[in-house]
Amino acid sequence: MTDLTTRYLGLELRSPLVASAGPLTGDPSMWERLEQAGAGAVVLPSLFEEQIEHESFAASFAAEHGADMHGEATSYLPDLPLGEVGPARHLGLVEQACERLSIPVIASLNGTSPGGWVRYAKHLADAGAAAIELNLYDVVVDPEVTSADIERRYVELVEEVRAEVSVPLAVKIGPWFTALGNFAVRLQAAGADGLVLFNRLYQPDIDLDHLSVVPRLTLSSSSESRLPLHWIANLRGALQCSLAATTGVHDGADALKLLLVGADVVMTTSALLRHGPEHLQAMERFMRDWMHEREYDSVDELRGSVSRENVPDPQVYERANYYHVLHSWAPAPRR
Amino acid sequence: MNPEIVDANEAVAAVAHLVSEVIAIYPITPASSMGEHADQWSARGHVNLWGAVPDVIEMQSEAGAAGALHGAVLRGAMATTFTASQGLLLMLPEMFKIAGELTPTVIHVAARSVATHALSIFGDHSDVMAARSTGFTMLCAGGVQEAADMAAVAHAVTLETRVPVLHFFDGFRTSHELNTVRVPDADVLRAMVSDDRISEHRLRGLDPDRPVLRGSAQNPDVFFQAREACTPFHAAVPAAVQEAMDRFAGLTGRQYHLVDYHGTPDADRVIVVMGSGAGAVREAVDAMNAAGERVGVLALRLYRPFPTRELLGALPPSVRTVVVLDRCKEPGAPFEPLHLDVLSAMWHSEADAWVDGVRPRVIGGRYGLSSKEFTPAMVKAVFDEALADAPKNPFTIGIVDDVSNTSLVWDPTFRTDHAKVRAVFYGLGSDGTVGANKNTAKIIGGNTDMSVQAYFVYDSKKSGSTTVSHVRVDEQPIDSSYLIDQATFVGVHQWNLLETLDVLGVAAPGATVLLNAPYPADQVWDRLSADVQQQMLDKGVRVFTIDAASVARGAGLGGRINTVMQTCFFYLSGVLPQEEALRELKDAIKKSYGARGDVVVERNIAAVDQSLAHLHELPLGASITSTRHRRPAVPAEAPDFVQRVTARMLAGEGDLLPVSALPPDGAFATATSQWEKRTIATEIPIWEPDLCIDCGKCAIVCPHAAIRMKVYEPAELESVGVEIKTKDFRSREVPGMKLTIQVAPDDCTGCGVCVQACPAHDKSSVKRKSINMQPIGEHLDEECVAWDAFLRVESADPAQWDPASVKTSQLRRPLFEFSGACAGCGETPYLKLLTQLFGDHTLIANATGCSSIYGGNLPTTPYAVDDDGRGPAWANSLFEDNAEFGLGIRLGFEAQRRTALGLVERLRPQLESAMGADALASLLDGVDDNGEVPIREQRVRVDALRAALRDLDDADARRLLDLAGTLVRKSVWIVGGDGWAYDIGAGGLDHVLGSGRNVNILVLDTEVYSNTGGQASKATPRGAVAKFAAGGKGIMKKDLGLEAMTYGDVYVARVALGASDVQTVKALLEAEAWPGVSLVIAYSTCIAHGFEMSRSMTQQKLAVQSGHWPLYRYRPSGEGDAHPFQLDSAEPSVDYAEFASSEARFGMLARSNPDRSKELVDLARTDVATRYEYYRQLADVQRSAPGHASDTTIADSEDGQ
Q1: Where does residue B1090 fall: left (phi above 0), alpha (psi -120 to 50 degrees), or beta otherwise?
Q2: What SS3 state is found at A224?
Q3: What is the Cα–Cα distance from B1190 to B825, expressed in whole angstroms?
């Protein structure tokens, strides 16, 4: 029997296939289906500090909107208990998932303020999350802010959270760092138990009829897994911490490739949204067949076997396709 | 029972909710919040004494509520309702029945003026006095604590006596006053209401297991005797009430009597009064007795049955003059009702019961109508009058009656208000001042042993309204039932109010004044007007200043200055030690805002911490440095009435106007809003001519007619004398013209709807539109000059073009302008458009509601007139009768026209001779001509007729002269909101829809009762929360249009201006042209929907795109192959959830009850799909309008009369 178990953030997972943060993992009716379909772990949707703030202001808006403006109407909306404004609802979701699932439940957090990251990470840990994924995502548009500032801030943030919570920490980042290797090593030094590569971010679109900007976030395609594949291959040898591949993982082949370059787990959202949680079974089946055919006994065996440090020509990762295209008619240089 | 800081409505509702199983409600000011509380408590699962959640049901009217109440109590349930004013009048028929059947119930009434020459939402006893013959026991409470307590007594007494109780207290003064109150709790109520009596009541209930018949019809043989059979029950009431009051005293320590005397035992003058006025009288009595006079007051709590014996027993034998004060007016009666009751009681007293063996004389007068101030100074004047040998009787007090000379003169310097802290705060409705003061009252009341009273006065505007908060704090209970006029603290929360109101007029000498000044402290003195500087020096006040908006912004609170100003009040007022005050304030912030999340709490606490660092004492200048004076309320060119009367009201001096200043019949001149320059916007739209595409959308959507559009000859630019922005007008029909779009800067509310609607972008920067919001300070002076010049530009005659377009409609002058509606109001653009299209020949019947308030609430009137002095003639009758009222106007017009036509026939020979036969024939052909030009031409013909008639020496000619105007087309538009059309007025509306008469009906559908604060109506959509539907409306909105279509001959349109202005214009024109009944249902975005109102029009578009509001027109036609239904909007293209999530009315349910929200939104999604499909099929249906038989009532008689 092929052994699919893997270690991620120090957690033993029965499979490297992880359902990543998204609408599916936010729907409690899907949890058991994901577990039964073979997910090694689930990452719940991010608790967004910005969202909590927005809800706070929405509650204030509802309470103050038109209040005390006229003798006949001291308010215009009923005084309703709007439920807990703040993290409680989200924390309840985490607690509930931890209670119902036997696979590890990883909570995700996107903060906006230094205090917020630490405060909410502690809340998530207290709610029972097996690990916390810090979803480092903001769009920095201020031209006065340097990339060094941003990296320093992120590293400090990981240090601050690390100092306050004891559960494993994963850090999910985007690919747009000039020196990703250096930054990844610093994150690891700051206390990250793993890196999740990469975020897929909101990208605005233009409505040509109204000349307006509209938010778009489309489901990923398999081709998008090349970017995490590339960087995991490059980073695997330089990092001791766990690596998770996310974005563009649609089938068993995508998953295998990412494991081969060094990922400890592969995370998928779009494919499960398209095909349902049971798609995990098909992915797993493909992986098992492939491994069986090639007589791989375990994920441990194949993990990283095609990473940069384990390929005969590492330059293929360093210059990648650009190099190859330019020189395809000539023999590859020896190193 | 710990003290709470609540108003009477909340306290009374709390009692009623605990002792009721069924609560039938309907919104009416000032009683609405009782129903709102009850509904919310039931939605949250609060239970009554018997462990069940009371069933709170909103009915279609107060008549409906009373009917449901009647049924519930006759079944043997414990039931109640809340109402006021017209609502109580609608309940009267049921009340006779309920009392006649000896069925226990309590109706709680926040007593309010009944509409007569005008509607008034404020308090007096004219409503409850109209109910005094119903057979109900009537209990009156004089203050907030009393109202809570009398509510308990009322529920106990009705069970004991079987006689239903009307429990009343003064609207606003008591219903809305926050005070320190101990609300009777469940234990007290359990001890008050007898289980045995409840059991008897239940057993009397209708039940097929032990059937009886109620409501029989009786004949002369027995009715009379049977009517007398109830007498012992009513006779037992006074004793039962006193017994309940005594039992209540045993439970709470608060002892009441049917009548309570206060004053010296040897008084020679005693005032008899009911309600909150007793508070002012008691204060005056104490002060006068301390000064050596001998006076007293007798506060009446039981009014029906009238406690003759108790009243006589309570009066000191020494009394020489009894003065009865009535808070109502009954024209034609010998005296007002309480006065007559006391006279009759006195008749029962033996002469020898009185010192000197002489019955005291009884005089009386009217006070406090419509919440008119009633102060201890006025009381003293009344007592003084009672010393006169020939006192005025009846008199009035509180006004200057220079017509009938009934009024007494009072000395305003007689004051008795000794509350330790007397604070008055001036703010705007939008700045949180009132909310902060409510919070302050709760902090003081909840954390100290002191008593607190807070009362709030609002002006009549819904946008930019001024609020004045009156807060008293004292060691003793406070029942000063009048406004503060010697404040120890004055908070001016809005700098602009220093310019428009005499805000320091209330400051006592040496008072502390807190100014929110948007200037550095060292500049504040010089920026004050000379008037204010003088007052500050004269009164020796200490002035503190803070730039609260800047502190609030710094703390992340945007423009909400309430926490900043509240902090400064606590710090300066000395009501609590400073450190303790700030600690309590922070605790209160955590409590008040905790439910909104940490970030809101943290920011408010940061505001507290930052406030004191920015608070500065203002060194008063040694002398007046300013040369500027407060600007006059109206400009000098305003007409005489506006100068003499309107301006006083605008300046807050309406109380000083004498009777002679006011029209006796409620008829006011229109077109006065133009003189009220409010300047309430912080940003105004500025036009960029180079980008403009002449579409007129900015003007058509403007809720306040503050953006105007004119097309004119280029020469006009020179004639106006100043440079105004202009561009070439793009028109094939009228080439060479210029166009200007201009904002009225003082009248704009800054809502931003125009900018959202503007479709023209700069090609190089899409954020720059053809119209953009800019800070008013940078543009005010320049735009005021431009506006004045714009008004002088002579517009080209738009009748040259087809009127059926958006653009040309906006070239007509709006005859509805600058109303006080909410900024961004979704209703007013329709009314404005209606007046642009038909205003010069339209009569409007307006149902009570938002549109009658912004349309007709003094001081100013937004309906305007054109250059010829023509404009909409507007009237509001009631809420429930508007369709019938409008139909009556139409009938009146048609009757007059028939008379006129008959007179023309009689005078035909003379007229043909004078005018020519052809001219007369043209005149008669043109009586119903529609359209701008034909109507003008007909007016010319009618002028010729008038000229001819003036030359005839004939009585018929003189009669026809009066009626000649009826020979020009007149339109009747019946206007109202959904509360009227879907609910309270539905029966009448249906009747009018079926009448076949030529009336037009415009329903401004906001999907809630907007005016009273957003209560659900049958127009409220599924899934929305509203007051009275706090759990989310579970059933689908009524399809009013489909109902109307069943008649087949009614023109019906459903429009949404923000989705299709073209369709809206078409629908109004078609409705006007249709010679039968027309119904236009207009989607009207409203503040009660819960979104930023700058999105008013885009939200309408979303409503249409999501299928929430499909557009259509049903155009009846007599053609056999007619397809009258035309669907004007496309299939839903936006998911319903997207629409729903953009409005708080839906979003709140998603937060408070996510499962129900999801269920209802899913159902609503199905609703819209099903409805659209149904409409799509309707569009295929072939239907010919039914033919009309001539109606005998309008057939011409043989002789043409």
Answers
A1: left
A2: helix
A3: 42
| Strand pairing class (B971-977; B487-492) | unpaired
| Residue of A56, A57, A61, A68 to mutate, interface with B, max B Cβ within 10 Å | A68
Q: Which helix (H) or strand (E) holds B56?
A: strand B55-58
Identity of residue B452: V
pTM of the predicted model as reported, rounded to 2 decimal places? 0.93
Q: How far apart are CA B793 and CA B781, in angstroms?
A: 19
B512-552 tens-digit pLDDT: 999 999 999 999 999 999 999 999 999 999 999 999 999 99
Which two structure tokens, joined as six digits, stand for B383?
A: 């007592």
Pull the structure tokens for residue B49: 């004494």
To the nearest whole angstrom, how far is the Cα of A73 from the nearest Cα of chain B? 4
Torsion sign (Cα): B106, B107, B111, B116: negative
For B662-776, strand residue ranges (E) read 683-687, 707-712, 727-728, 738-743, 761-762, 765-769, 771-775
Are A56 and B596 inside 8 Å of each other by CB?
Answer: yes
Does B909 score more than 50 pLDDT? yes
B80 closest CA partner among B52, B59, B104, B61: B104
Over residues B1093-1122, mean pLDDT: 95
Q: Using the Cα atoms of residue B34, residue B38, residue B40 and residue B41 in order, give the sign of their dihedral.
A: positive
Rama region for B304: left / alpha / beta (φ>0; ψ in -120 to 50; rest): beta
Give A335's pLDDT tier (boundaries 50, 70, 90). Answer: very low
Higher pLDDT, A309 or B342: B342
Mean pLDDT, rounded, for B304-326:
97
Percent of chain B with pLDDT over 90: 91
Closest B-chain CA to A83: B1152
pLDDT tens-digit series, residues B923-974? 999 999 999 999 999 999 999 999 999 999 999 999 999 999 999 999 999 9
What is the full DSSP assignment across B761-788?
EETTEEEEESEEEEEGGGTHHHHHHHHH
Token output for A299? 């994920």
Task: Say yes or no for a CB contact (<8 Å) between B432 and A68.
Answer: yes
Whole-complex ipTM: 0.92
Over the Cα atoms of chain A, what is R_g?
22
Q: Please tell me which of the candidates B435, B465, B1088 has its beta carbon nearest to residue A77.
A: B1088
Of B1175, B1150, B924, B870, nearest to B1052 by C-alpha is B1175
- The 3-class secondary structure across B480-546, one letter per residue, is CCCCCCCEEEEEECCCCHHHHCCHHHHEEEEEEEEEECCCCHHHHHHHCCHHHHHHHHHHCCEEEEE
A189–B contact, CB cutoff 8 A: no
- Beta strand pairing status for B542-546 and B507-516? parallel
Q: What 3-state class would DSSP assign to B138?
A: strand
Mean pLDDT, residues B841-856 taken together? 97
Q: Is B1129 helix (H, G, I), strand (E, B) or coil?
A: coil
* Residue B22, CA distances (Å) to B18, B62, B80, B81, B85 in order: 11, 15, 7, 9, 22
Q: Where are the beta strands (DSSP E) in A92-225?
A: 105-110, 131-135, 169-173, 194-197, 203-207, 212-216
B1066 closest CA partner among B1054, B1076, B1077: B1054
Distance CA B284, CA B375 (A): 8
CB burial of residue B432 (10 Å; 0-12, 13-18, 19+) = buried
**Amino acid B1189: pLDDT:** 65
Cβ pairs bridging A and B (under 8 Å): 145
How far is residue B1020's CA from residue B1039's CA, in Å, rounded to a whole number?
A: 11
Give me the pLDDT at residue B804, please: 67
Tokens of B583: 């600690």
Q: Do the Cβ atoms of B434 and A68 come within 8 Å?
A: yes
Cα B429-B435-B441 angle, rounded to 5 deg: 140
